[in-house]
Amino acid sequence: MIITISGALGSGKSTIAKELSKRLGIEHFSTGDFMRQMANERKVTVLELNRIAETDSSVDQELDERQKNFGATRDNFVIDGRLSWFFIPHSIKVFLDVSDEEAAKRIFHAKRPDEHYNDSLQSTLENIHARRDLEVYRYKKIYNVDYYDKKHYNIVIDTTHLTIPQVVDAVLRGVQHKLRLREHKQKKKTEPKQNH
Question: Could you tell me the pTM of the whole model?
Fold first, then answer.
C-alpha cells in the first residue's frame, strides 16, 4: 500500500504523513525534505529554488525521478509532496486543504530555520500566495496538471479546524474505504462469469 499526500501549503502534509506512517508502521518520505536538501546544497531558500526551477528543469526532474523510482521499486510507504500522486498513479491519493489565513499562522509559528523570510504573519501570507502561484504555473506548464483540482484524489480533507489526530483518523477511514473498494473490484475480476 502506497499513500500519497498532496495539499495546500500549510495544510499539514508532512505532519499528517509522519503520523500516518507511525500509525500504519510503514516508512515515510517527503518531497519537501528533498526540496529543502536541494535548497541547502545550492545555498538558496526553498522559494528561491522554486524560482530557479522555473528555468532549470533539472530541479523538477530530480524530484520526479526520486518519486517515480520509489513508486516503482518500493511498497508500503507514505510520501507527501504536491505531485506524488501524479508520479505514483497506483497510490491512494490524499489532498489536504486549509484556509490561507490558517496556513499562514501554521507556517509562521513553525519558524523553520530555512524559511527566515517568513518574518511576519503578513509576509508569510504573501509568500504562500507567491509560492502557490509559482507552483501552479510551473506544474501546469511542465506536466499540464493542476494539483489543486480535487478530482485527482481519492480522499479530500479540509484541515482548517481539525486537530492532527482528527485528520489522521479521517485519512485512515478514507484509506480503509478505498482498500475495501479495491478488494471488491479484484474479487469481481477473479470471479468466474456465470452463463444464464
Answer: 0.79
